[in-house]
Amino acid sequence: MRRVIPLVLLSVALSVPAAARQDPTRPIKANQTDGYGNDRLVAFTYFMNFQCVHEPGDDLDNDGAIAAVDPNEFQSPRCVVGRQPTIDPNGRPITDTQPLYVIVPFFDADADGQAATPELAAALRRLFGFVPDAFDPSPGVPVQCPEPGPPLSVHAGAFGTCTMHPSTLDLGPVLASLGAVPAGTAVQVPTPITATSSTARTSARSGGRWSWC
Known about the structure:
The protein is mainly β. It contains two helices and eight strands.
């Protein structure tokens, strides 16, 4: 029996500066993604890069040195799934940040068992018993990231990408919580295929900052 990981286990608290508008005009722009908010389809517009908050006491590269004294922490984005910072990129409490739910297809809808590389497919089978569509360049379900291309979007994104986002995520904390890897292990994977939804009533009318969940 294949193993399906609940979405809540794939939560990550990151802050996304974005604005959403109703009834997106097609094709959406290169700095936009489709999403769902205020009970309708919307376009999220990114005016700056997707930010993964890194606090002084963090040790996200697991080398035993906290970020405040370890410049190696900052040589590439370190977006860690299953970790929630205490502040957003503006320095405000994360509890004041609106949630933006990112839906990850953690199932294999077309049962093709494919991933970006044979090595990644083999690693996913070892970890989960199957290869989720989240890491399949040709998933069995429609998604918003990577961007699908015309006529829906101006840009057709490559696998593992999404406008203004890093191209990798660290699944280490989630896998450690499942007993799949030792605690403190970094497990870098391509940014998963996603769809986006916001529950905030104001999200379809005004700009804001969201926490990616």
